[in-house]
Amino acid sequence: SLAGLLLLTSFLLHVEEGHANPTRLVCDNRLIQKYIGEAKDMEKRVGQCQALPTLSCPTVLPLVDFSLQQWKSKSNETKRREILCDLALLVSAVAEAHGQVTQECGAKQLSQLYRHANSFLLLLQTFSWEAGPWEPGCSTRSMEQTYVTSIFLTYRQLVQGKLRFFFHDLARDLCK
Question: What is the DSSP string of 141-174?
Fold first, then answer.
């Protein structure tokens, strides 16, 4: 889709020599607001799909709620790793759900969600940090869910919550 291509292009514009430069991405607050808006739109559109089936095999979704007080006490690297774990679990859940949803509207929305969530996952993996590259191995809090709409809700909450606050924290350091 055109929107997916534009999202990927905007991410790629921030990548230099194999490492993302988060400065331009996080310093323009309009960008994260755009991603939040897209997450809300996807959630709304999947809610409008007719006769969306319940998943026969539940997907495992990350619990993305968090305490702002605890969040503020974490290092940016710890926050990044936590978001990467949440995104990896979410991308996996979207792929599993996509394999179970044959209804066109739901499958189309899941494909779009997969592209968006996977783009964020790839982007955060390429940010250059002193700690080195991200390696999978997560122990994130999770829950099983059989409703496709829950996957979209989780993504919106992740973008609106942890990801937005993470970008805000990075902006404080990078956008002086």
Answer: -EEEEEEHHHHHHHHHHHIIIIIHHHHHHHHHHH
Domain holding 156: CATH number? 1.20.1250.10
Structure confidence at residue 14 as a pLDDT band (50, 70, 90) = very low
Q: Is residue 88 part of a domain?
A: yes
Q: Model-level pTM?
A: 0.82
- Phi (first) and psi of residue 142, to 5 degrees: -150, 170
11 domain-assigned: no
Range 107-111 contact pairs with CB under 8 angstroms and sequence separation of 24 or more? 109/42, 109/45, 109/46, 109/49, 109/152, 110/46, 110/148, 110/151
Number of domains into which the chain is organized:
1
pLDDT, residue 43, reads 95
- Percent share of the chain, pLDDT over 70: 79
